Amino acid sequence: MSDIPLRIDEPRGQASALTIALAHGAGAGMDSAFMKDIARALAEASFRVARFEFPYMRQLRETGKRGRPDAPAVLEQTWAAVVAQLGDPSRLVIGGKSMGGRIASMVADRLSVKGLVCLGYPFHPAGRPGTLRVAHLRDLATPTLIVQGERDALGSREEIDGYTLSSAIRLHYMVDGDHSFKPRKSSGATFEQNFRQAVEEISAFCRAL
Fold first, then answer.
1. Among 9, 41, 118, 180, which residue carries the largest CB count within 10 Å?
2. Which domain holds residue 70?
3. 148/83 Cα distance (integer angstroms)
4. Is 2 part of any domain?
């Protein structure tokens, strides 16, 4: 596979030795507001952040024609190519939003990366809680942080409490957050608070690796 175009946010201040590579979710590319904001915030926290797009999303950018996500094998191969481009997996944390984080979790052990960060992990498709995507998470060895909205429609706190997950996985819940960490006004929490907390949790997790 040829080189994957990367979008790099350089670290501010005293740079960490780690690079964080992030992939987008199924429906929006690396320039979505969420992806841009999380990359910039982590760069401000002194991490080098690399974003990229899977082939189907690059095709949308180039042709304007939206297609279905690539086959899992293609998505995994893309992640492997990105890790190879960035070099030294022992200094690399991979992950991303929803599908991007899920695919990263499927290759993390094989690619021997330092850590894994999933932002809104899709434990099951929306409305299909019986179709679980957790089998590989039971034996995952890579140190992992999953940042999840408490009422995420693709895996709520109540649902996740019933799953068997690897001891390498740490879960942090966003107060009343949905799949993008947005709470309801009635909760008293704000998206800005949840977003800042997510960045703080990711930063602390990466620094402790």
1. 118
2. 7-207
3. 25
4. no
Count of domains in the chain?
1
CB 116 within 8 A of CB 93: yes
- Tell how far CA 195 is from the center of its chain: 14
Determine the Cα–Cα distance for residues 54 and 70; give it in Å rounded to an integer.
8
| CATH number of the domain within which 69 lies | 3.40.50.1820
Backbone φ and ψ for 37, nearest 5 degrees, come out as -70, -40
Note the helical H segments in 20-67. Answer: 33-44, 55-63
Residues 92-131, buried b or exposed e (16+ Cβ, 10 A)?
bbbbbbbbbbbbbbbbbeebebbbbbbbbbbbbeeeeeee
How far apart, in Å, are the Cα atoms of 33 and each of 39, 43, 126, 187? 10, 15, 22, 23
Does residue 1 form part of some domain? Answer: no
In a domain, 17, yes or no: yes
- For residue range 195-209, list pLDDT tens digits in order: 999 999 999 999 999
Q: What CA–CA distance (Å, rounded) separates 35 from 45?
A: 15
The whole-model pTM stands at: 0.95
- Are 149 and 158 within 8 A, CB to CB? no
Structure tokens at 190: 């704000």
Residue 74 is assigned to a structural domain of this protein: yes
Please check whether residue 36 is in contact with residue 60, taking contact to mean a CB–CB distance below 8 angstroms. Answer: no
